[in-house]
Amino acid sequence: MSLSDVVLAAHGVGVRFGGFTALQDASVAFRRGAITGVVGPNGAGKSTLFNILSGRVRPTSGAVLYKGEDITRLPGHARARRGLTRTFQISRELGGLTVLENLLLATPGHPGEGLVGGLFGGRAARAAEEQARVDARGLLERVGLWRLADASASALSGGQKKLLELCRALMLRPEMILLDEPAAGVNPVLIGEVADFIRVLQSEGVSFGIVEHNMDLIAALCDPIYVLAEGRVLLEGSFEAISANEAVIEAYLGG
Ligand code: ADP
Ligand code: MG
C-alpha cells in the first residue's frame, strides 16, 4: 500500500485510563476509497481506537495521520472541518429538536448561530443557511426520512436514529467517516438499506472505517478488516482470511 493510498492512519497508538491499558501499540491504515472494518470482542478497544482517530481521546503514545498530516493534537471539531467525521455507538440525536433541525445544527455556521450570523454575517450567513437546508433535504430524501423532517428526533426508531446520525456526519461533506456499530439495534431490513447507502457513498468517493459486530455486514462491505483483542491489533486481512485464523477464533471463543 503506497503512502498516498492511505487517507487515515494510526501509528502505534496506545492509551491508558488510570492503570488500565485500553489500547496498546495499535497501528491501522484506512485506504482511500475503501471500507475498512474493525472487529473484536467487547472491550477490545474498538471504540477507543475510533475515539483516538476522531479526536475525542488523546493517545498516551503514538500518532494519528490524516492525509499525510499529523493530527494527533488536533481537536475533533478541527478534524471534522478537514473532512474526517464519525458516528457514535449510541446515537446522539437531539431528541427535543426535529429531524431537520438535527441536521441543520450539524453544519458549521448553522442557523443556531443565527444571532451572530445576523449581526456579522448578513447575506453570506443566509446563503450558508439556505445551502444547509438544501443539503439536509437532499440527504433526508436519500435515506427516506424527508417525510419525517418535522417530526421530533426522539420519535424515530433505533435504525432511523442511526441513519439520522449518519446524515449529520454527512452534512460536513466528509472524505472519511468512522462508523461505530452502525447496525446495532437496527432491524434487518434497515441494515440492508444502511449497507446500500454506505456502498453508494463509497462509489461517490467517501472512505469508511466501520466497527461492527454484525459479521454479515462486515463480510458484505469491508476489506480489509482489522481484528482487535484486549487492546491490541491481532491481524488484518480479508473476511475469508480473518475468519479462518486460529488466533481470531481463539480471541472470540477463548477466555
Ligand atoms: P469496544 O468498543 O471494543 O467494546 P472500548 O474501546 O469501548 O471497547 O473499551 C475498551 C476498554 O477500555 C474497556 O475495558 C473499557 O471499559 C475501557 N474504557 C474505555 N473508555 C474508558 C474511559 N474513558 N475510562 C476508563 N476505561 C475506559
Ligand atoms: Mg465499542
Automatic annotation (TrEMBL):
Q: What SMART domains does this protein's entry cite? A: AAA
**Cross-referenced InterPro entries:** AAA+_ATPase, ABC_AA/LPS_Transport, ABC_transporter-like_ATP-bd, ABC_transporter-like_CS, BCA_ABC_TP_C, P-loop_NTPase
Give start-end ranges for the coiled-coil region(s). Answer: none
Question: One MF term from GO for this chain?
Answer: ATP hydrolysis activity
Outline the extent of the ABC transporter domain: 1-255
UniProt keyword terms in alphabetical order: ATP-binding, Nucleotide-binding, Transport
Gene Ontology cellular component terms for the protein in this record: plasma membrane
Nucleotide-binding as a keyword?
yes
Task: Please name the Gene3D superfamilies in this protein's record.
Answer: P-loop containing nucleotide triphosphate hydrolases (3.40.50.300)
Q: Which family does it belong to?
A: Belongs to the ABC transporter superfamily.
Q: What name does UniProt use for this protein? A: ABC transporter ATP-binding protein
